[in-house]
Amino acid sequence: MYKLVFVSAFIVLSAADVSHLLRGNRPLLKPISGPAPKFIAILRSDSDISPDGSYHYSYETENRISAEERGALKSLPEGAGTAAQGSYQYISPEGIPVSVQYVADENGFQPQSDILPTPPPTPSYILRALEYNARNPEPPTKPFLKNPSAFRRF
């Protein structure tokens, strides 16, 4: 019986794929097909981190991508956080220049740009219904049971 277990374990281990153990944690590199990737030069890069926690960075690349951000530590009742404001620009695949300005603080990330989607306008009948509801609130409803505590069992 022991021989059968030993032989079957030997067969299983010899048939197992252990190539991932031989290459360590390095991923298996696949050759890239097609033309070699073009490297984009960085035309300008600036960054500064102050001892008080404030920072500034900006960069610009030769393919017309640029970004800039300023931030500082901010104390809130919930704890400390970072408040930042900045912008980034690039050319879309369609050739349209895109510019986004943003503020990120205790109210979240708030981008502003012409390229961001906006909701459609509210239809006039919805606006009229909202005005009607504001002028004519519903009367408070009566409880279904007159004495709900009578049904409690504790």
Walk me through the structure.
With 154 residues, the chain is α+β, with helices and mostly antiparallel strands. The chain has a domain at 40-111. It is 19% helix and 34% strand. It is built from 3 helices and 6 strands; from the N terminus they run H-H-E-E-E-E-E-E-H. The chain has helices at residues 2-15, 19-22, 124-135, and strands spanning 42-49, 55-61, 66-76, 79-91, 97-105, 108-112. Strands 1-2-3-4-5-6 form a 6-stranded antiparallel sheet, with no helix packed on it. The chain is extended, with a radius of gyration of 32 Å. The N and C termini lie far apart (65 Å). 0% of the residues are buried.
Give the arrangement of secondary structure elements.
Layout: H1 2-15, H2 19-22, E1 42-49, E2 55-61, E3 66-76, E4 79-91, E5 97-105, E6 108-112, H3 124-135
Antiparallel strand pairs: 1-2, 2-3, 3-4, 4-5, 5-6
Keywords: Cuticle, Signal
GO molecular function: structural constituent of chitin-based larval cuticle
GO cellular component, one term: chitin-based extracellular matrix
